[in-house]
Amino acid sequence: xxxxxxxxxxxxxxxxxxxxxxxxxxxxxxxxxxxxxxxxxxxxxxxxxxxxxxxxxxxxxxxxxxxxxxxxxxxxxxxxxxxxxxxxxxxxxxxxxxxxxxxxxxxxxxxxxxxxxxxxxxxxxxxxxxxxxxxxxxxxxxxxxxxxxxxxxxxxxxxxxxxxxxxxxxxxxxxxxxxxxxxxxxxxxxxxxxxxxxxxxxxxxxxxxxxxxxxxxxxxxxxxxxxxxxxxxxxxxxxxxxxxxxxxxxxxxxxxxxxxxxxxxxxxxxxxxxxxxxxxxxxxxxxxxxxxxxxxxxxxxxxxxxxxxxxxxxxxxxxxxxxxxxxxxxxxxxxxxxxxxxxxxxxxxxxxxxxxxxxxxxxxxxxxxxxxxxxxxxxxxxx
Length: 383
Fold this sequence. Notes:
mainly beta; two-stranded antiparallel sheet
C-alpha cells in the first residue's frame, strides 16, 4: 500500500508541472439555493441551481504561436448542482444531436490576436450578454430573464443564446466591443424530403460602448424556422416558416450612489410564426449598501401579440415581472444571497403557455395562468 501511495504521489508531482506548462486552466462556479413559493400558480419548495450564476466547470487554455498570434480553446460543462446532472442544452439541440451531452455551455477552438478572436464550435451568441444593462445581471430573479424565456426570445441569458456549429468573432478596441456569429444550426445536410441545410441557420451581431460610468449596447439576432425537429427527424412545420428577428438596445450609468440600467427589445415572427411579435422592456437599480453588499431591483413588462399560430385569436397579453436580490460577498469568490421574483402572467391561458413551450402540469387548456411568486436563499462560489 505504501509503494502504491508513493507511486501516485510521484506521478502527481510530474503531472502538475506538465499541466501548468500547457497553459490549461480549470475554472467554474457552484451555485445552489433553497426556493419556496409558486411557479405559474403551482407550489414549489426545495433546492435548485444557478440563482446568481450557472453551476459549471470549464477548461481553457492558449498557446503562443508567435507574431502576437495565439491558439485558444474553451470547454465548459454546465450541471444542475441539486441533482448532479449535466444541463444547459436547449430541448431542440438535445433532441437533434446524438451522443452524450458533454460541454454543453461552450466548446470551441480558435485563434486570437490584435484583431480579436475567431473561434469554431458551440459558442455564446451576442444575445447571451444582456447583463451589463440588467440591474439583476441575468440572475434567476431577473425580469428580463423570466420574460424573455416565456416569450421565446433569442436575446436572453439562457440556453437559446448558445449556438451549435458556429463561427464567432469578438474584438475589443479601447471603448468599443464587437461580436458576430454565424451558426449552421443542427441541420448540416440537405434531406431527401425537402429540408435544406440552411433551414435553421442563425446569425447575430453585437456592438458595445463602455467609457467610465457609461455602458451602451445594441444586439441583433435572426433564427430561421423553415423546419422543426420532432423525435430526431426534420419535418415541415405548419405555418411556422418565418425567420425570427430579435433586437435589443441597452444602457447603464453608474452615478456612484446607484447604477441605473435598462433595455428595450423586440422579437418579430417569434418561433417562426408569422405575426407573433413581442416587445419587452425592463429597468432597474443597483444600490451599494454596506461594504461590497448590493441591493438589486428591477421591473419589466412584455407584450405578446395575439392573432397568430402561437397565441391564437384574441388580444395582446402583457405579462409583467418584479425581481429583487440582496448580495453579500463573503470573499472575492463566495457570495450569499437572498432574492424574490414576482410574475403576473396577465390573461395568458394554459393552451397559449403550452404553445410557448411551458409544461401545463395538468391544467385546463382554457384556464388562466396564475402568478409566480418565489423566494430564494442561496450561495454562489466561483473557482
